[in-house]
């Protein structure tokens, strides 16, 4: 999944570079690639993925609570 996202970001950077070349050819101003496409930082990506992981774990925990397993039933009784 991470490799797929990296590939998408690489493609977007390439497209930004192509747009930059077209811009430089048609105008006198010189924009930067970062002006056209800013890759998200890895810190934000990690924070986002950790938050998503916590949410997924909470959902899984809530979903599993609907089942009664043999060991749990024996402890309850």
From TrEMBL:
It comes from the Bacteria. Residues 22-51 are annotated as: Disordered. This is Uncharacterized protein. Residues 32-51 have a biased composition (Basic and acidic residues).
């Amino acid at each position: 999944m991470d490799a797929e996202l990296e590939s998408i970001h690489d493609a977007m950077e390439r497209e930004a570079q192509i747009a930059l070349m077209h811009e430089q050819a048609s105008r006198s101003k010189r924009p930067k690639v970062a002006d056209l496409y800013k890759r998200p930082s890895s810190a934000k990506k990690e924070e986002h993925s950790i938050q998503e992981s916590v949410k997924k774990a909470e959902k899984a925990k809530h979903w599993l609570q609907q089942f009664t397993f043999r060991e749990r039933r024996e402890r309850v009784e």
